[in-house]
From TrEMBL:
SUPFAM superfamilies: FMN-binding split barrel (SSF50475). It comes from Streptomyces orinoci. Residues 221-232 have a biased composition (Basic and acidic residues). It holds the Pfam family FMN_bind_2. Residues 191-232 are annotated as: Disordered. This is FMN-binding negative transcriptional regulator.
């Protein structure tokens, strides 16, 4: 992914936060003569860990699963590379918001591209655990406390149709295009216009814009803002 200097993430924690808040990835692999395959699927960290890429993403193990009837599953090969594309908050920016002329429209967006090596899971018991771990992770983050214990037998009855895999991360890059190239007053107008929209996607984009370090703000001050904004 081409990431202009203006739009590089301030640190790796931006990428790990985006992945955990937006865990539905587009998984892309080379399909050989059939061309590339792309499948939308949920991704979680292995071992119930929290993704922390404040240092380096390399070596992180991620888990995913898809329908075995999907030709993409049959095309996956252990040892081959995979690209996982995660998309975060985004929104159209109208030149009218800038209140300057001349101006051009654009689209603010956030995305993380993760590269890794695939390992297909062969065991049904391990596949079942990937499915259960995925349900636990998302119920904890996005659900309402559903207890899966009474559904384990149902999980077992359908797990033969599930294909699970691991990805060992070999690299990642983040694109956080949030009007950084604009003067502070213009960027503030864009942020304010997003924050006033009814669409939650625009409001989330505004929140990320507010997280960007401002001129004169130290890295420590930016980290304090980040810690405070992510408290439950």
């Amino acid at each position: 992914m081409f990431v202009p200097r203006h739009y590089r993430e301030p640190d790796g924690s931006w990428m790990s936060d985006l992945i955990q808040d937006n865990p539905l990835a587009l998984a892309v692999t080379n399909g050989g003569d059939d061309g590339p395959f792309a499948t939308h699927l949920p991704i979680i960290p292995a071992h119930g860990t929290v993704i922390d890429w404040s240092d380096s993403p390399n070596g992180t193990v991620l888990l995913g699963h898809l329908n075995r009837a999907n030709p993409h599953w049959h095309a996956l090969r252990t040892g081959e590379v995979i690209l996982l594309v995660f998309t975060g908050p985004h929104g159209y920016v109208s030149p009218a918001v800038y209140d300057v002329t001349p101006a051009a429209p654009t689209w603010n967006f956030t995305s993380v591209h993760v590269h890794g090596v695939i390992e297909k899971v062969d065991s049904l018991e391990e596949t079942l655990e990937v499915v259960r771990a995925t349900a636990r992770t998302f119920e904890s983050s996005f659900g309402s406390g559903w207890d899966q214990s009474e559904s384990v037998d149902y999980f077992r009855s359908i797990v033969s149709g599930v294909g699970a895999f691991r990805v060992t991360v070999t690299g990642a890059e983040g694109m956080f295009k949030l009007s950084q190239e604009q003067p502070p007053e213009v960027r503030e107008r864009v942020k304010r216009s997003f924050s006033q929209r009814a669409c939650s996607r625009h409001r989330e984009t505004a929140e990320l814009m507010g997280r960007l370090p401002q001129k004169g703000q130290t890295k420590g001050q930016a980290e304090e803002w980040h810690d405070a904004s992510h408290k439950p």
